[in-house]
Amino acid sequence: MSSSEQKRVGLLFGSFNPIHIGHLILAQHMVTHTDLAEVWFVVSPQSPYKVGQQLLPEQDRLALVEAAIADNPQLRTSSVEFQLPRPNYTVATLDELGRQYPQYQFVLLMGGDNLAGLAGWKDTARIQQEFDMYVYPRPGYEMPVEAANNPRLRIVEAPPLDISATFIRESLHAGKSIRYLVPEAVEQQIEANRYWASQ
Ligand SMILES: Nc1ncnc2c1ncn2[C@@H]1O[C@H](COP(=O)(O)OP(=O)(O)OP(=O)(O)O)[C@@H](O)[C@H]1O
Ligand SMILES: O=C(O)c1ccc[n+]([C@@H]2O[C@H](COP(=O)([O-])O)[C@@H](O)[C@H]2O)c1
């Protein structure tokens, strides 16, 4: 199959601790306004940049992502990293997905904050050579100047959203509502399980 015939699938890697509408709007924007047929949310049990941080167990984070996208056929979850060594280096996951799905062409999706840290990732040069990357602007993060020199990188102009999982966890710790910051099904699941509850 030639590369022009392959289905293009966007991969949004993240801790999703928890998933929020920033992730969902990013994914939907990419599926609607680019050549991607699908976006997969790849839940990372352990980001190399979050070692030592308290994270909800990965199965619970995955369940929240599944609840968030259940009614959207263009969005999917992937738990491929659950079986891979930790911390989860994205290059290893991309190799594994390439082995499992040779029929797809994968594109990396990320927010501007992750692009700013990309130079410090494992095998950055190989990732940049082998994969197209679509970047969604994130308030507070300038696009690095080197980004302009990468022919495989595309900055997708999209409405910026100043929403983070950190803010959601802090709101829950403080006993504040997270209504509209996450889908209703996610809010209900968080409440029912008292994730990040104040006491
Ligand atoms: N509001 C947003 N705008 C653009 N990109 C975002 C936004 N929120 C998350 N992303 C992107 O989604 C991916 C996964 O992010 P992650 O799961 O770390 O969420 P987060 O909100 O940044 O979490 P935390 O606040 O816990 O660090 C990253 O590529 C990140 O850049
Ligand atoms: O491969 C790396 O070196 C690497 C370094 C930092 C982050 N990542 C991945 O980037 C994704 C978002 O990470 P984070 O820390 O913003 O939640 C997550 O899937 C991490 O595994 C990957």
TrEMBL record:
Domain of life: Bacteria
Protein keywords: ATP-binding, NAD, Nucleotide-binding, Nucleotidyltransferase, Pyridine nucleotide biosynthesis, Transferase
The keyword Magnesium belongs to this UniProt entry's keyword annotation: no
The Cytidyltransferase-like domain, residue ranges: 12-170
Pfam families: CTP_transf_like
Pathway stated in the Swiss-Prot or TrEMBL entry: Cofactor biosynthesis; NAD(+) biosynthesis; deamido-NAD(+) from nicotinate D-ribonucleotide: step 1/1
InterPro entries tied to this protein: Cyt_trans-like, NadD/NMNAT, Rossmann-like_a/b/a_fold
CDD domains per record: NMNAT (cd02165)
Catalytic activity: nicotinate beta-D-ribonucleotide + ATP + H(+) = deamido-NAD(+) + diphosphate
GO MF, one example: nicotinate-nucleotide adenylyltransferase activity
Signal peptide range in chain numbering: none
Its EC number(s): 2.7.7.18
A single GO BP: NAD+ biosynthetic process
Role, per record: Catalyzes the reversible adenylation of nicotinate mononucleotide (NaMN) to nicotinic acid adenine dinucleotide (NaAD).
Family per record: Belongs to the NadD family.
NCBIfam families linked: cyt_tran_rel, nicotinate (nicotinamide) nucleotide adenylyltransferase
Protein name: Probable nicotinate-nucleotide adenylyltransferase
Species: Hymenobacter telluris
